[in-house]
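User: Design a sequence. Structure:
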């Protein structure tokens, strides 16, 4: 949190000198040119058409009319010499460029997942309660080597069960006017989200004198089949931590309105977008299966999602004096390049050979981006911006879904936990507050 607050302060401090330039009085747009049926005053010319003497390289400045005194000040007379059209185009583009800084307060989430394999139900009492809350349906702890542990039951926690809300983030957006519309580019990032699940061993004494020690566990399949006796036990400590990082960038051409000069203008959007979602899941803890033996279990799953591709959308804009209301809807035809890594240590034995696996694959990951916004023009150069935005997609690999909790049939065989190719949904949404600075 400290580094995010520092970054926000530094970025805002860099914008403060520019805000001084923006502190002028707001004025409504002025109409230039001559209305239909009105005679052209002597010595004046339509906007964008310099007098003939400048087409021929004349040295005099334009006539001193109010219109040209505003459009063509004396210090810019040299723009009509040489490549004047290119210079005027560059100057006009730069003067109409804008930049906006957004503060993001978002939440991210997905589907919750239990950190273990499904368990074979009891033939008499039915499914086991892996949360440990139902005393009559708890799962007995069984060690792969030493067998059943008396008076001990297990808890297999879930992760991803709640949304990571209140994440700080930043986005920087720039808009450059073009003849066919406006080119918009942005880059954004959210702070790292972390979720931690712990199981502290304790004695849940159901009746006086009858112990029931509850400890953490990772349930496993047995040779790919459901089982209720194959698991990794954590008699001393259990901790599962999930770290999620996400950032992205996009380039869009927001075309000129197809319905100009109406109450609600419609602007097509064409562009490309890239989203990077990476996660680290670490399950770690200690187990003492017998006196003198300590196992430091470790399961480390890492995923990287590189989602990129073209996107299309539409923007609805309505302007009421200083207030501009807009709704954006964009669909990303995403291609997801997924990279997975898995490392395990001391799952069944202290002298067990460490395992490191990796995998990469590509799949389709459609993503939808929706936002509603309001912008209020405070001065000629400065505007305030507020919005709500929702980003939701499918086909994203999550670290907690990329584990195949399997075990070999033989107790002397090495661990068989591998990488799973399952994918999940992903969403991010929240509030956007921004300050926009126009250079015109």
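Assistant: Done.
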């Amino acid at each position: 949190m400290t580094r995010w607050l520092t970054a926000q302060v530094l970025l805002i401090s860099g914008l403060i000198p520019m805000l001084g330039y923006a502190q002028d009085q707001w004025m409504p747009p002025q109409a230039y040119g001559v209305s239909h049926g009105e005679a052209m005053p002597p010595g004046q010319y339509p906007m964008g058409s310099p007098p003939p003497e400048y087409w021929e390289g004349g040295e005099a400045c334009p006539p001193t009319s109010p219109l040209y005194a505003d459009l063509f000040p004396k210090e810019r007379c040299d723009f009509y010499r040489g490549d004047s059209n290119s210079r005027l185009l560059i100057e006009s583009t730069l003067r109409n460029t804008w930049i906006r800084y957004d503060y993001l307060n978002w939440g991210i989430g997905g589907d919750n997942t239990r950190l273990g394999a499904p368990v074979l139900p009891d033939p008499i009492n039915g499914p086991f309660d892996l949360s440990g809350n139902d005393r009559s349906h708890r799962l007995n702890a069984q060690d792969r080597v030493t067998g059943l542990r008396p008076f001990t039951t297990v808890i297999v926690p879930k992760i991803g069960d709640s949304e990571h809300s209140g994440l700080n983030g930043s986005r920087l957006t720039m808009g450059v006017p073009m003849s066919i519309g406006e080119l918009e580019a942005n880059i954004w990032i959210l702070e790292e989200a972390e979720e931690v699940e712990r199981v502290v061993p304790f004695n849940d004494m159901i009746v006086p004198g009858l112990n029931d020690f509850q400890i953490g566990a990772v349930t496993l399949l047995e040779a790919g089949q459901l089982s209720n006796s194959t698991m990794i036990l954590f008699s001393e400590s259990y901790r599962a931590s999930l770290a999620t990082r996400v950032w992205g960038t996009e380039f869009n051409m927001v075309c000129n309105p197809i319905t100009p000069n109406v109450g609600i203008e419609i602007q097509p959007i064409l562009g490309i977008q890239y989203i990077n979602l990476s996660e680290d899941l670490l399950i770690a803890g200690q187990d003492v299966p017998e006196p003198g033996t300590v196992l430091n279990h470790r399961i480390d799953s890492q995923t990287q999602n590189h989602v990129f591709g073209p996107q299309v959308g539409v923007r609805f804009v309505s302007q009421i004096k200083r207030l501009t209301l807009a709704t954006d809807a964009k669909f990303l035809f995403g291609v997801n390049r997924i990279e997975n890594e898995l490392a395990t240590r001391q799952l069944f034995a202290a002298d067990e050979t460490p395992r490191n696996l990796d995998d990469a694959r590509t799949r389709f990951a459609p993503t939808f981006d929706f936002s509603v916004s309001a912008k209020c023009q405070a001065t000629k150069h400065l505007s305030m911006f507020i919005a709500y935005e929702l980003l939701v997609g499918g086909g994203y690999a999550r670290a907690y879904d990329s584990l195949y909790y399997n075990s070999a049939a033989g107790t002397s065989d090495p661990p068989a936990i591998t990488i799973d190719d399952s994918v999940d949904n992903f969403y991010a949404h929240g509030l956007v507050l921004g300050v926009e600075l126009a250079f015109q």
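The first strand starts at residue 98 and ends at 109. Helices lie at 2-22, 52-55, 66-71, 84-95.
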